[in-house]
Amino acid sequence: MTPHNEAKKEDIARIVIMPGDPRRAKFITENYLENYTLVNDVRGMLAYTGYYKGTRLTVMASGMGIPSMGIYSYELFKFYDVDVIIRVGSMGAYDANLELYDVVIAEESYSDSPYARIQNGNEDNILKSDTTLNEIITNTANEHNITLHKGRVYCSEVFYHEEVDIDYMNHTLGCFGTEMETFALFHNAKALGKKATAIITVSDHIRTGKETTADERETAFKTMMELALNSAIKM
């Protein structure tokens, strides 16, 4: 156990599906897992372990932002012997070619956060997700006729930006949208010799102002959820 996770080591599966929102973790568990058990609710960060199509999986929330993801993913990798974490989350789109509810794989995460440098001296500001996991997800998407977008996201430490140069972020830095967790997840996986990736749904569009509701973000991202689950059982 850790200060943030009351589960015993054997309570956590080797593959973890990781939404940010604890209520989304609860929704995934109740709608897709069988024979599940609540294994953590410290600080309301819900974690459940159960079975999806016969494969043992854990679904655990990460909370919002790099620091929260940094804590929970590090502990899962380091202290619970987790091999794979798949983030399932939401993103604000920069790219004009993206629409609400489009599903993307974050192949790379760019950030101006000092997280990696402070954690272990890594000066990289672009970190990659695991290519093997991404290939499995891509093949699974093809099997289920799911359109996937792939590329780089901007992992920000600030949600309420006073000013954002969308063209610079999109066209110069090559980021097709922004979210707040991938950089910490990808860094921890690299630092600890583990595997991680992120499947993300467009929840709002920063260029157009279109957005989804809080209820939709909690429950309506079923394509992303099912893609993550059907991919996880092949890993």
What can you see in these coordinates?
The chain is an alpha/beta fold. The chain has one domain: Rossmann fold. Helix content is 34%, strand content 29%. It has 8 helices and 10 strands. The chain has helices at 22-32, 66-79, 115-120, 131-143, 166-172, 182-192, 214-219, 222-232; strands at 15-19, 34-40, 47-52, 55-60, 84-93, 103-110, 126-128, 148-155, 175-179, 195-205. The chain has a 5-stranded mixed barrel, surrounded by 5 helices. A hairpin with a 6-residue loop joins strand 2 and strand 3 (47-52). It is globular, with a radius of gyration of 16 Å.
Question: In total, how many beta strands?
Answer: 10
The second-level CATH architecture is 3-Layer(aba) Sandwich
State the name of the first-level CATH class: Alpha Beta
Largest sheet: 5 strands, mixed, barrel
What is the topology, as strand order, of the major beta sheet?
5-9-8-6-10
- CATH fold description: Rossmann fold
Fourth-level CATH superfamily: Nucleoside phosphorylase domain
Strand content: 25-35%
The residue ranges in which pLDDT falls below 50 over 5 or more consecutive positions are none
